[in-house]
Specification:
With 148 residues, the protein is mainly alpha-helical. The protein is built from four helices and no strands. It binds heme C (2 copies).
Length: 148
């Protein structure tokens, strides 16, 4: 008897969940159980023009292509331009000091293991229309608005 009641409950709950899933507003443009044609891969923005941040603490997005840049145990292509030593030749902005800090706050001579895999945090800029409008206002704009 008990198992029967539990089984009925499970069936009812999953039906209810299915009904809710139909009505969830998603940015994918259709219900979750509808298979869509995947969008084309967006073209990378290789313009060298930096974008402003879209939320606090955002790692800056990458304004250039990174195709074929090797980052593994043997080499870090990103650091061949962005390390302290290479900025004069490359004219690339140096990775900030936080990238040399270990988890205890000590500054290391080379990139910290925590920051080795750059694209864990930094993403290339794409020529894609945003899925949602962003209403983020940076602190400078808020302060200026306050002083008026
Ligand atoms: C050949 C040199 C070179 C290599 C290799 C390179 N970069 Fe860059 N990077 C630059 C230069 C130069 C800029 C300045 C903007 C520009 O000219 O594109 C830049 C800008 C950036 C910025 C923007 C910084 C900011 O303050 O807005 C980020 C983030 C970045 N690169 C990350 C990376 C990552 C991650 C890799 C490896 C996947 C990488 N770069 C490899 C030269 C390089
Ligand atoms: C754990 C996330 C993380 C990883 C991994 C990481 N970064 Fe960053 N990076 C950030 C954040 C957050 C900022 C902005 C705040 C700061 O400087 O700490 C930043 C800032 C930068 C800047 C701009 C520095 C400045 O002074 O404006 C460059 C260039 C950059 N990173 C390149 C790299 C490269 C190259 C690597 C790989 C060797 C890398 N980052 C790995 C999170 C990360």
């Amino acid at each position: 008897m008990k198992t029967r009641i539990i089984a009925t409950l499970i069936v009812l709950l999953s039906l209810a969940a299915g009904a809710i899933a139909q009505n969830i507003a998603t940015t994918r443009g259709a219900a979750l159980d509808t298979e869509l044609k995947p969008p084309q891969i967006h073209r990378v923005d290789n313009s060298d023009v930096r974008r402003k941040r879209a939320y606090p603490m955002q790692p800056p997005t990458i304004p250039h292509k990174t195709d074929g840049y090797q980052v593994d145990m043997n080499a870090n292509k990103c650091m061949s331009c962005h390390s302290r030593r290479r900025t004069e030749e490359s004219q690339a902005p140096m990775v900030s000091v936080t990238h040399y800090m270990d988890r205890d706050g000590n500054f290391r001579a080379d990139i910290s293991a925590r920051r080795y895999f750059c694209e864990q945090c930094h993403v290339v800029q794409n020529q894609a229309a945003p899925l949602l409008a962003n209403e983020f206002e940076d602190i400078d704009d808020l302060l200026r608005a306050d002083n008026k």
